Amino acid sequence: MTDGQITLTGIRAHAHHGVLASERELGQPFSVDVTLDVDMDTDSDDLTKAVNYATVAQQVLNVLTGEPVNLIETLAGRIADTVLAISQRIRHVHVTVHKPHAPVGIALDDVAVTCRKDAE
Fold this sequence. Notes:
By secondary structure, the protein is of the alpha+beta class. Helix content is 26%, strand content 36%.
């Protein structure tokens, strides 16, 4: 096995996370970046021995568009837990949730939260 990384950048969806009632009702755009540290089989060319990044992307999207939470920290943690459950080949996951329209009272480009979780 080889130490490897898989990165998915910019998984986007309109979702309803946030503390404010308007965020829950109207929703807003979110995006997620995920980096997986994996045990990578670079010799066999066998899909069954790889982490299927299409599955990872779909599971991230499912959490992102699923049950609303107040905090993007909670959202990042839920995404990380979901991704880690996909394959035993995933050793660590880094999840960044971007909330570019966060209601912080000033003009800014983005608010992002990143978490890292390890497989058990």
